[in-house]
Amino acid sequence: MKLKTTALLFASLLVLAGCDQAEKSAQQLMGQAAEAAKQAIDDTHKAAEQALSDATGNLISQKEPKEDDEKTESSSQEI
């Protein structure tokens, strides 16, 4: 009877140790997945900013002289 009890306790310890190792592995995988997701979001954000910059680049450069004209007009109006 003692042998069966000892074997059962030993088996329980092995199962618990295995569960602990599985939990650590799962946490490590989740951490790696979170890092990959963050990197993908950062890359997507950079690509979107670049696309927006490319798409509006000509518009912004065309508006700048107009803004300068408005500034000179408003400064002459202030005097």
From TrEMBL:
PROSITE patterns: PROKAR_LIPOPROTEIN (PS51257). Residues 41-79 are annotated as: Disordered. Residues 1-17 form the signal peptide. Residues 63-73 have a biased composition (Basic and acidic residues). Keywords: Signal. This is Lipoprotein.
